Amino acid sequence: MNWRTPTTVITALLLPLPLVLILGGALQPQTPESIRGRAISPVLSVEERSHLRTYRRNCSTSDSCEAPLGCLMDARAHAQYCADSQCLTDAQCSDGQHCQLLSTEGSGPLVRYCIPRGIRAEGERCIKVPATHDEACAPGLVCGGRGGFCARPCTLSSSKACAPGFFCADTRPEPLCLPSCEQRGCPEGQQCIRHDEGASTCARVLGPSCQQSPCPQGQTCEVIHSPQFPDRIWSECEQRCGQDRPPCPSDLVCDGWSCKQPCQPNGPNTCAEGFRCFQRRPSSPWVCHPHW
Length: 292
Hints:
mainly beta, two-stranded antiparallel sheet, Dickkopf N-terminal cysteine-rich domain-containing protein
């Protein structure tokens, strides 16, 4: 027997081992990326998206989206739909944009989206997926918190995490410095308005000041804002209607599940300051609506 034969056989058997180990590692299930216990949706391939029935379908919560999709509000599309991530790094975004980590509705996964670099200052209202840079935050800031504020990341354990007039809030996906006017007060003509997660801002109030003067029984105080007017707040005492709820008072009409003040588009302006006569769709009644 040729003495080289066993050595040749052993060598031939050993050569594929690195390849087997590499392939074996690649075939192992990958742990989904997450932050603070919340999964981050990956950038799916065209084929992977085609197998998801709810991909890009309209949604109200992330529970109606198949994993790994989350329900995202996109102002550019004027829609809320099931989405995966769009990018991994800033290099994958167009000029003037950066790759931003965003929360989806409810307990859905986080997604990474290409967001315009904007002009909004720290503490100003913003849109998380804006249509233009005018509605987006300046470089170094992210649009976060349930209320949508331009903010800088912070550390909850640090006593000096934020500048004066801001506090470190435990927001998702990361803690952020949210504005507060509770201690410093507001300029004349403005009020300190409370928002979600402990945030508060100074604004001119249009409509009843229901945070200072409670609404009548059976009504709730609704505070409405528009990113186009960061110094104004529309305030309303809302009474829900429809779906077996009590009918609206005789001087109000039901529109969009709440009782509204009716108006005539071609008649005298009977709406309060900051409100206009508006019709949501041709079949809807004309009602007083915040004017923005």
